[in-house]
Amino acid sequence: MNLNQLKMFVTVIEHQGFSAAARHLNFSPTSVSKQIKSLEAILGIQLIQRTSTTFEVTDVGNLF
Predict the structure, then answer these.
(1) Does residue 25 contact residue 11 with C-beta atoms inside 8 Å?
(2) Which of 21, 29, 51, 58 is the most buried (most CB within 10 A)?
(3) Distance between CA atoms of residues 47 and 64, nearest Å
(4) 5-33 tens-digit pLDDT
């Protein structure tokens, strides 16, 4: 885990989505999504439940 991944996670939550967070951070949505997936893999937990149309922070994600 690195600080950039943590910053991206917080920004995704604050902006309630990957696209809005990516615009704010000046990254592509794909890049932000990959960083969040990497963070989840490192932690071994799912922080955000996502589909093509929905976005929801998991209970564990809220605690994190």
Answers:
(1) yes
(2) 21
(3) 8
(4) 999 999 999 999 999 999 999 999 999 99
